[in-house]
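During the no-cost extension, the postdoctoral fellow (Dr. R.K.) reprocessed legacy sequence entries with the updated structure-token encoder. One reprocessed record is reproduced below for audit purposes.
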Amino acid sequence: MKPFSRFAMLVLLIGCFADVQAQDSAGERGARVARAIDQRFEKIDIHGRSVVDALIDLGSRAGITITVDEQAIELLPWGRDTRLSDLRIENATLREALKEILGYIGMEYAERGGEIVVRASGPLERINRRATWEDLELLRRCNTTEYSPDAFAEFRLQYRISSKVDAPALLSGQLAKAGRGTVAQMLEVAAGSLGWTWFPNKDHLVIMTNQAQIAHRLARRFTYRYSNMPLSHILADLAKRANVALNLEPGMMRKLPPSIAQSSNLVLQQASIRQALEILCAETGLKYSMERDGLSVGLAEDASDASVGGAARRSPYVCKISVPSKDGSFAYEFLVRESELPDDILEYRRQIVEATIEKMRAEMAPDGSIRTGSADGP
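Re-encoded structure tokens follow.
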């Protein structure tokens, strides 16, 4: 074997050994966390301590690190100064203790990198402001009350859904199909299947569409300082601040001038994410829309060949308007593009389409009493 080949083989072996060590280390950290969360404590007393300090101390007693997400802690009534009232937990595992403690403040935990990370639950995050103790108490009720139609009737609901659909009936229908669980779990499944979401608001639960929730999040205000950054990176950061998924039109950046796609700027003081997006779109020839599954960004319909390096793009036709002539002998027909309809009409159209599809599925379901032929005969 040549000297160079021996050296290359040695480097390869060292690399493989390092990978194995890294995997073993990650496995050991995961095993340590698993042992820790199943560790049983005879007594846990919390007397007026801050949430962060109480959780850090609990992790220290269990021999692992517990960290609290900074954005999550700011959603609590007093931010980092939020304190837990007197609480005693006896003969419980760390897993059970965390569930009870976090249940009072609308949070949850996950294992990440060999430690426990405490983060905001979905409903708490969707409030989109600092929660009140009234919000947290209502959320705790949702998380601890087993669902039944009678139990659910005890909760007050506010539907922020188009009045042209029977929102209570639609939600009741989905809840009947959702199986079993707490009120919070059932709402996640039922509302999610309709393209809706929910969160506590003082003494009632708000039910709204995903698009409305995204619009709600885009109202968050920040200070932005982007200098000579790729446009895709700016868009990704704005979506992260809003905590929404970002869907970019395939090939979009290649159709923009390099000076825009590769080196964009945006400086704003305490502006909403929506304002930041609108300024970016006005300066770059892009457009954005709020979809059921997140924020979509693409080329503006009236973008010229010179600005995007390609053909002008138009949104699809989604409906037709027929206007009869005065004598009734013929009718005028107008095709309407998606971009020409307001958001509430588009949402109403989507709900009608989904409801119709569900009816079609029910009517087209296989009928066991009907026998069909096969390739080998009847």
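The longest strand covers residues 221-229. The first helix runs from residue 3 to 37. The remaining legacy entries will be reprocessed before the final report is submitted.
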